[in-house]
Amino acid sequence: MAGLGGCLVVGSGYIFAVRSQKAPWRPVALLFLGLLFVGLTALLSQRPAIHGPQGPISISERALSATNIIGSGTIEDSAPQGTTAQDPTIEDSTINHRYFLWQVTWQMVRDHPILGLGYGNYQIRFPHYRNAHKNSARFAHMTPSQRLEQTPYAHNEYLHLLAETGPLGLLAFLVLVGSGLWAGVRTAYNAGNLLIWGAIGFIIAMLIHSLVSYPLRLPFNGMSF
Fold first, then answer.
1. Buried-most residue among 33, 34, 88, 224 (CB within 10 A)?
2. Which domain holds residue 83?
3. Computed over its alpha carbons, how large is the radius of gyration of the chain?
């Protein structure tokens, strides 16, 4: 979804550039890129992303597993016809782990709504909050190693910032990135520069990915961003 969002940004920029006669119309190149995008997506979707209790879980199976938000019903109740509770498309422990992390992180935000925990304190304070949620349904659906993990990240950049630095810290990040994006969009729109549209698309992809992971805290991704 993050990649698709970035592609939509670049595609919109290309349309603007063509309409303003700042870039040529290249239907053959667009068709080739479209087929390449679809082909690579179909190919990579079948590759194993992780190994679960039942064996390898492909990217497409993991995407389907994201629809299984553990609530009042059971895994069996939410299983589509023709599948079982052990089907990786129904239960992916890493997806459930994220839901638990977000539940715990939101409790941190509620306990420290103004200044947050302090930058870099998420991992230090996590065990205390994790142990306070041991009776939750999501905790019961995690693996033994996940129940003991002292995770350093909330797997959501925005929630992580909110928990550590409070609303002012999150707002500062959003203003910094937003002002840079606004300046980039104005420049790309006026100049019809496709390279700038590409850079904007990359940033948008990273921001969308940040909703479910911590790409900005990985060295290569962070430096690129």
1. 88
2. 45-91
3. 21
